[in-house]
Design goal:
The chain is an all-alpha fold and 127 residues long. The chain is built from six helices and no strands. It has one domain. The mean pLDDT is 93.
Length: 127
């Protein structure tokens, strides 16, 4: 807690981590994870549990829920989800279909590339 309060670098790292955690949708992640087949069953629960532990750790350091100190960003994320989440789910379906078709460079691939741009624009970063 003292580091977060007294060290600007650590505070900035926590700000970035808090933003990324707040943007994370485990349900969307699960859809992508299922594309990994049997590895999904092996790793998804552990990754989800680690995500929850990380959220709890950041909230403990901040003494508040994620983004409690940044209402503007919290609102922005809440407003963008109804637009970005369907694009993400479409991307999962396109990936599944594109892989099943042998990964051709066709209209499906171009649509898949468009979803990458749409998601990046919606979340306002590339990752």
């Amino acid at each position: 807690v003292e580091m977060a309060r007294d060290w600007p670098f650590f505070d900035t790292v926590l700000d970035d981590l808090e933003m990324i955690l707040a943007k994370t949708e485990l349900g969307i992640f699960e859809a992508y994870s299922q594309l990994a087949g049997e590895r999904h069953a092996r790793y998804f629960a552990d990754i989800g549990a680690e995500f929850e532990r990380t959220v709890q750790g950041v909230e403990a350091l901040r003494g508040a829920a994620l983004l409690a100190g940044d209402a503007r960003l919290a609102r922005s994320i809440r407003l963008r989800n109804p637009y970005v989440d369907p694009i993400s789910l479409l991307q999962v379906e396109l990936l599944r279909d594109w892989r099943a078709a042998g990964r051709p460079d066709d209209a499906r691939f171009r649509a898949l590339a468009a979803t990458v741009n749409g998601i990046a624009a919606g979340v306002q970063n590339t990752g």
